[in-house]
Write a structure and sequence with these properties.
By secondary structure, this protein is an alpha/beta fold. The protein has 4 domains: about 5-175, 3-Layer(aba) Sandwich (Rossmann fold); about 180-240 and about 335-360, no CATH class; about 245-325, Arc Repressor Mutant, subunit A (Orthogonal Bundle), CATH 1.10.10; about 365-475, Trna Endonuclease, Chain: A, domain 1 (3-Layer(aba) Sandwich). It is about 45% helix and about 15% strand. It is built from 22 helices and 13 strands. A 5-stranded parallel beta sheet has the order 2-3-4-1-5, with helices on both faces. Strands 9-10-11-12-13 form a 5-stranded mixed beta sheet. It has a 3-stranded antiparallel beta sheet with strand order 6-8-7. A hairpin with a 3-residue loop joins β10 and β11 (about 410-415). α3 packs parallel to α4 (about 85-100) and α9 (about 195-205) packs parallel to α11.
Length: about 475
């Protein structure tokens, strides 16, 4: 059963109902649910489906094509493997012509999954596909071709933004993102897993919104039990997932892993120059390609601090599972039962949970805006920091600044807590200092509000009242748009 993905389903529905041939590109990271979405949405309308195999050579991919074509024709008879992709697409064209639907019967779908794996080097796959689409398929109004890939950067570079035969041929594209918290909650409930918001939040902070990872949660288990079993038992699915994750997506993936590891060690993120120095890479085309590939796939995020230009952009790790793996699983694999429960009681848990919650909130900025009643207000959102310019100056960092067109600004701090968050005298002073430094450093004349995004809200005491805090709870992060 499909859960969430409303915008994506609407787009696929439009493609299915259109009176023109459609070429739809779908891309998103491994395990995100691309194949499931296409199969579930189109069902029996799929006339041909082929999936590429990781690290397979041209012959093995063509063998897979032959098997898929035999399945599509329904003959059950073994077919001769074509000698080239040009021959393969001629066979596919002949099959589709023979099975053309009657007028008004709706579109037939060709689904080519993991296109980057099918298009092996010097195989001629892309040239043959271009000829198939440009020479015949693009004139068949009853045909919808879906091309899918886990390497978002490859799909964009080789297909969507290609300057050759496929230039401007893609009619619609879908970047499939991880589930939001609202979609995660709905997905878990569809599997009879009812954890409540706090435990769903904890599960998301470890697994992210990746459906295949979230599938590890079982009815009747707590989030801690699911994390324990998936990450810390000998046969846990996510115990070794990190080791395959990047290698399956990128060439020379050790460079991508090095960047991810460096960002995991830098809580507030880092500039491009500092990051490349940390991983021993020289600034240039190769470094740009690695960073772009990680950003396009959603593993890292780049933001420009308020008041700065692109040269000062800050990179941070955005993938929850990678942070969880590098913090807990890789070097801290517990032995025996209760490993995760013991780790949750450690000081390290507080540091990790704070960072993971902050990252999660940055992915749900629109939910925060709705909770503040400013969803319709034009805003600019970014982290902010100020380094002291002289010995008498003060520095400050703010998790998120929402700069508003209504002459107001929210300085947002994210705090993960098991109970109502308590603003004590020291933290109240720190917040006042941040607001003062922000006003002085930016020269803003806007009204500056202090906002806390927490799990259960803020305990009402004199310090919180004096600051005039606005608060957003985790419940707001679960609200659907």
């Amino acid at each position: 059963m499909l859960v969430g993905r409303r915008a994506e389903r609407a787009l696929l529905g439009e493609a299915m109902r259109s009176a023109e041939p459609e070429l739809v590109a779908v891309y998103g990271r491994r395990r995100i649910g691309k194949t499931f979405l296409i199969r579930e949405f189109f069902g029996e309308a799929i006339a041909f489906e082929l999936t590429g195999s990781h690290a397979g050579d041209m012959k093995s991919q063509l063998d897979a094509f032959t098997t898929a074509l035999g399945r599509a024709t329904g003959t059950g008879l073994p077919l001769a493997t074509p000698a080239s992709w040009a021959d393969a697409f001629r066979l596919l064209e002949a099959h589709l012509k023979a099975s053309r639907p009657a007028a008004g019967a709706g579109k037939r779908v060709v689904f080519l999954d993991e296109l980057p794996w099918l298009a092996t080097r010097r195989s001629g796959f892309l040239a043959a596909f271009e000829h198939f689409w440009n020479g015949w398929a693009s004139s068949q109004e009853w045909l919808l071709v879906v091309i899918c890939g886990s390497s978002a950067s490859w799909m964009l570079r080789k297909v969507v933004k290609q300057r050759g035969g496929l230039h401007n041929r893609v009619t619609r594209r879908i970047r499939l993102e991880p589930f939001t918290l609202a979609e995660t909650d709905a997905y878990l409930r569809s599997r009879d897993v009812d954890l409540g918001h706090y435990q769903t939040l904890e599960l998301y902070m470890a697994f992210g919104g990746v459906p295949h990872y979230l599938k590890q949660a079982r009815a009747g288990e707590s989030a801690a039990q699911a994390i324990e079993r998936a990450c810390f038992t000998r046969d846990g699915l996510l115990r070794d997932e990190f080791e395959q994750l990047y290698a399956s997506l990128f060439d020379r993936a050790e460079r991508h892993e090095a960047v991810v590891r460096a960002l995991a060690a830098r809580r507030r993120g880092t500039t491009r120059g500092e990051l490349l120095q940390a991983v021993g890479m020289v600034s240039g085309g190769t470094a740009t390609k690695v960073l772009d590939e990680l950003e396009e796939s959603g593993f890292i995020a780049r933001s420009t601090p308020l008041g700065h230009d692109q040269r000062d952009a800050v990179y941070r790790l955005a993938d929850e599972y990678s942070l969880f793996y590098l913090t807990w699983i890789e070097k801290h694999r517990g032995r025996g039962e209760g490993a995760w429960q013991r780790k949750r009681a450690s000081p390290r848990f507080r540091a990790w949970s704070g960072l993971a919650f902050e990252s999660l909130c940055l992915k749900h900025v629109m939910s925060i805006k709705r909770a503040l009643g400013i969803a319709a207000v034009e805003t600019e959102e970014a982290p902010w920091s100020h380094r002291p310019l002289d010995p008498d100056d003060e520095g400050a960092q703010v998790d998120l600044v929402i700069d508003r067109a209504d002459r107001s600004t929210n300085l947002c701090e994210m705090k993960f807590s098991e109970t109502d968050y308590v603003v004590d005298k020291g933290y109240a002073h720190a917040l006042e200092r941040k607001r003062a430094v922000f006003r002085r450093a930016t020269g803003t004349r806007k009204t500056v509000f202090l906002t806390l995004v927490t799990t259960y809200g803020v305990k009402n005491n004199a310090h919180a009242q004096r600051l005039g805090l606005t608060t957003v709870t985790m419940d707001a992060l679960f609200e659907s748009p």
